[in-house]
Amino acid sequence: MGAALRRVVKLGGSLLRQADLADRWRRWYGVQSPRQTLVVVGGGGVADAMAEIQRIHTRMTDAQAHWLCIRAMQLNAELVVGLLPEAEYVVDVAEFVRRPPTAGVFVVDPWSFTQADARGADPLPESWDVSSDSIAARLATTIDAAELVLLKSALPGNAASRDAYVDQAFAATSLGIATIRCVDLSNDAFPEVSLK
């Protein structure tokens, strides 16, 4: 199994409010083609609260808020590993992709990944333009994944709502990804649309 058989999944933080999230994940994942699946978990309500905190504490910079939101993503990733004991937690993505690839679920530590990305030649912006959408897209391009799947609690509608469906940096960050699917995991039928 090579890089072409890897997928990256962004698991939206809003889905953490679903009491049956683990069951929904397993039902959706169970009908997917077998691939090595790396999961990036969103910040959800904690990231939303950070935006409100920044409005109150006006001396907080966008860069500070960005990294605190990534800490929230890290906490949520650890929560998801607890909900999915079959998943492996991946701290070092570079080391992980050097291992012989195997199918399965691997939850990525977003803090370690974004810290490594920040030391690269073209780091993601440290701003509200970047959310877990762009972090997942950056991971997909970094590991040359065959596809990126955005699991959220809604689907994008028309072109205008598609722009609001993902963060501002997503269009540029996802340029090299051949296949991008959006799935509404909160709907029992798991409807999906393709962005690419």
How is this fold's topology laid out?
Blueprint: E1 6-11, H1 21-30, E2 36-41, H2 44-56, H3 62-83, E3 88-90, H4 93-98, E4 104-108, H5 110-118, H6 132-142, E5 147-152, H7 159-165, H8 170-173, E6 179-184, E7 192-194
Helix pairs in contact: 2-3
Structure summarized in a few sentences:
The protein has one domain: Carbamate kinase (3-Layer(aba) Sandwich). The chain contains eight helices and seven strands, in the order E-H-E-H-H-E-H-E-H-H-E-H-H-E-E. The protein has helices at 21-30, 44-56, 62-83, 93-98, 110-118, 132-142, 159-165, 170-173, and strands at 6-11, 36-41, 88-90, 104-108, 147-152, 179-184, 192-194.
Within CATH, the superfamily carries the name Acetylglutamate kinase-like
**What best-fitting shape do the alpha-carbon axes yield?**
globular
Q: Output the number of helix runs.
A: 8
Q: Give the low-confidence spans.
A: none
What's the total count of β strands? 7
Strand content: 15-25%
CATH overall fold name: Carbamate kinase
Order of helices and strands: EHEHHEHEHHEHHEE
What value does the average pLDDT take?
A: 93
As for the number of domains, it is 1
* Cα distance spanning the termini: 23 Å
C-alpha-based Rg, rounded: 16 Å
Second-tier CATH architecture: 3-Layer(aba) Sandwich
Based on secondary structure, the structural category is alpha/beta
Q: How helical, in percent, are the residues?
A: 40-55%
Biggest sheet overview? 7 strands, mixed
What would CATH call the class?
Alpha Beta
Kindly report the spatial arrangement of strands forming the biggest sheet.
3-4-2-1-5-6-7
